[in-house]
Amino acid sequence: MSPSMKETSLETMEKKGEDINGIMKEEQDKLFDPSEAPPFRINDIRAAIPKHCWVKNPWRSMSYVFRDAIVISALLAAALYFRSWFFWPFYWVAQGTMFWALFVLGHDCGHGSFSDNPILNNVMGHILHSTILVPYHGWRISHRTHHQNHGNVEKDESWVPMSEDLYNSLSSRTKFLRFKIPFPLFAYPVYLWYRSPGKTGSHFNPYSNLFAPQERKHIMTSTTCWIAMVVFLVYLSSVIGPSMTFKLYGVPYLIFVAWLDVVTYLHHHGYEQKLPWYRGKEWSYLRGGLTTIDRDYGIFNGIHHDIGTHVIHHLFPQIPHYHLVEAVNKSSETGDRKILPGAEEIRADSVSLNRESSVEHETRSLREQQRRDSILSEGSQPVFASQIRMSHFI
Fold first, then answer.
1. Which keywords does UniProt give here (predicted)?
2. DSSP codes of every residue in 146-168
3. Are strands 383-384 and 161-162 parallel, antiparallel or unpaired?
4. Can you give the residue range of the structural domain that contains 299?
5. Phi, psi (5° rounding) for residue 327?
6. Which residues lie below 8 Å from residue 29, measured CB to CB, with a gap of 6+?
7. Mean pLDDT score, 248-254
8. How far apart are CA 296 and CA 306, in angstroms?
9. pTM (predicted TM-score)
């Protein structure tokens, strides 16, 4: 459909009050427009969340770790038992998905939503993340920067818009690897070593400008744990062979990386619903947080610990994952104005995915993005993500 035909169709639907992107016209009028100043305060949302949603139960958090560990062990045992090309594809997808689930639990440790005990959070975070080759403290600190500056085009750490000048300065090889499917789906390990264009530093280097001097000992600890995991994998290869190690661990690891890149991309990109980026005085913590997107992953919602309820998580990362759905439902209404869509609405209508699967949306969105050449605005007005090139690193 041509742009003019599409615009005409949308106008016709609006006049009739028909459904657009899964939302009735009357409902769209009530939804918060992220390009405008929020008509409410973050404390209004906080006050609507039940008090028990803020309670962190370490035993409940550990139960999810045990659950995931049991599933991973069972899949590993099944793979060793069958050792069949008929079973390997199922194992790779299932195990890679479980690696992603482990990452989400380690992510909760990094936010302190796993428990109120910092020692427990850091110990479990290192175990969970080192197992899947993520430097726990290095990632935790850069991710904290992302949460503190989400939506700020000048300070955000993740998925920051790329100016045309920066894009033009990239080598042909870098452009190809960053913007051609499927390479952006496996960008995360490279990001850990080199970050994104225009930024310097490494998540493994304690003297990187990512970290404050007092954080260096934490980075040394996490890098040591990461190296220990690499040494273990090398030893495992010497025992069972590189091919079997790659089948048991390497392919699931790549599936996990693809999960991480796709999910993070979907939470910070919108096309039918444009997402603004702010700079200077236009930015605020609340405005930035409201530019993230909730996503419905169907049967995977429970498997990867409801990471799709992303808006409320960005505003209040202290809330444990097992309370996120209730928190977003309770905070979806303040007074007579709708703030956030409830989890049931998101999952019933798949509004934010526009009734496309995550993979279909990801592939189409990345291809569309390759054709966008607009220059990043120099003013202080919001910059819409659909009007600029995006870096496809996390």
1. Fatty acid biosynthesis, Fatty acid metabolism, Lipid biosynthesis, Lipid metabolism, Membrane, Oxidoreductase, Transmembrane, Transmembrane helix
2. HHHTTTBTTT-SSS-EE-HHHHH
3. unpaired
4. 42-390
5. -65, -45
6. none
7. 96
8. 9
9. 0.77
Q: In this model, does residue 91 exceed pLDDT 60?
A: yes
Which of 235-239, 303-307, 389-393 is predicted most confidently?
Answer: 235-239
Q: How confident is the model at residue 166 (pLDDT cuts 50, 70, 90)?
A: confident
Contact assessment for residue 108 and residue 61, using Cβ atoms and an 8 Å cutoff: yes
Q: Which of 132, 122, 123, 143 is nearest to 102 (CA)?
A: 132
3-state secondary structure of 23: strand
Question: Sign of the CA dihedral 226, 231, 237, 240?
Answer: negative
What pLDDT score was predicted for residue 288? 86
Tell me which amino acid residue 12 is: T
Tracing tokens 């699967």 back to the chain, one arrives at 357
Predicted confidence band of residue 335 (pLDDT cuts 50, 70, 90): very low
**Does 26 reside within a domain?**
no
Which amino acid does the sequence have at 329? N
Q: What's the whole-number average pLDDT of the chain?
A: 77
Q: What is the mean pLDDT of residues 2-31?
A: 43
Q: Is residue 30 part of a domain?
A: no
User: And the tokens for 165?
Assistant: 């000048």
Give the residue among 329, 259, 256 at the shortest CA–CA distance from 294. Answer: 329
Report which residue type is found at 21: N
Contacts by residues 219-223 (CB-CB < 8 Å, ≥ 24 positions apart)? 219/135, 219/137, 219/138, 219/141, 221/126, 221/137, 222/126, 222/129, 222/130, 222/135, 222/136, 222/137, 222/138, 223/135, 223/138
Q: Could you give the number of structural domains in the chain?
A: 1
- Determine the residue type at 33: D
Rounded to whole angstroms, the Cα distance separating 125 from 122 reads 5
Burial 376-389 (b: 16+ CB within 10 A, else e): bbeeeebbbbbbbb
> What is the Cα–Cα distance from 186 to 364, expressed in whole angstroms?
17
If you ran DSSP here, which 8-state letter would residue 246 be given?
Answer: I
**Which residue shows structure tokens 């949603």?**
53
Q: Is residue 37 part of a domain?
A: no
DSSP H or E stretch at residue 73: helix 58-82
Please provide the DSSP assignment of 304-323 as one string.
TTTTT-HHHHHH-TTS-GGG
Residue tagged 């993340």 (tokens): 129
Does 16 fall in a domain?
Answer: no
